[in-house]
Amino acid sequence: MPYFTATDGARIAYDDMGEGRPLLLLHGLMAHRGFFERQHELADSFRLIAVDLRGHGESRSPGEAPTIEQLAGDVTALVELLDLEDAIGVGWSLGASVLWQVLTGAAADRFAGAVIVDMTPRVMNDDSWRLGLSEDACEARRRAIEADFPTFANAAGQAIFAASNAEALAESAHWAGEEFAKNEAGAISALWSSLVQQDFRSRLGRICQPTLIIHGAESHLYGSDTADHLVAALPDARALRFDHSGHSPHFEQPGPFNRAIRDFAASLPRVREHPTTTA
């Protein structure tokens, strides 16, 4: 498993497998690159790069508390290090916020498309925004993380799946909770605080890449109205609902999810044409 070293000395772990158009996989809060294992079959026609975001999995965060901006900086550095071109970014939950930051930064022209999985451009509601979570709910999560992180993490692992599939996914839910709980509570608390401060609404109009919005019909976090908002706010976007998924369609319905990725990729033009080498 390769690592790269960020400018502050943080070691960022990632997987790099397969050949073809790069597919950059960015996980949600408390998860890690292993939550995309069911997408490994896509390595038959894509170059899969799955990252452990700073503060998660095998990418620990030294020094100061991590922020969304730092995570995006790490991803940008990795994209440039690997010299990725014509890439598709796949951002699930927290990973979507990181991807939006990247797509409005210096590495934006390295991407041909984006896939957003069950995320809102603003997590915390206010008087003019109701497509996220209430201020009380955001604060309650912060307190729960700090008070008893293992209990919070295990409950969150259960909650990412659709209630209608609870029995079939019981083992996966138990695994997810255990994996969530392996993180450092301080890093997760800092990232949650950073996440609820983000507001990407004004940036969406600057994202020119075609975007596929994937959401679970049984998500306990965000509904179809959030997906509709993203479709309206992004210059080139469409939504796809997974009727038997909660917050993690890529895990709950991997077959349809992977087919959607293949179909979406096939619809994208190449951003950069590479010169043909002749003998």
Automatic annotation (TrEMBL):
It comes from the Bacteria. Residues 22-254 form the AB hydrolase-1 domain. This is AB hydrolase-1 domain-containing protein. It comes from Allosphingosinicella humi. The lineage of its organism: Bacteria, Pseudomonadati, Pseudomonadota, Alphaproteobacteria, Sphingomonadales.
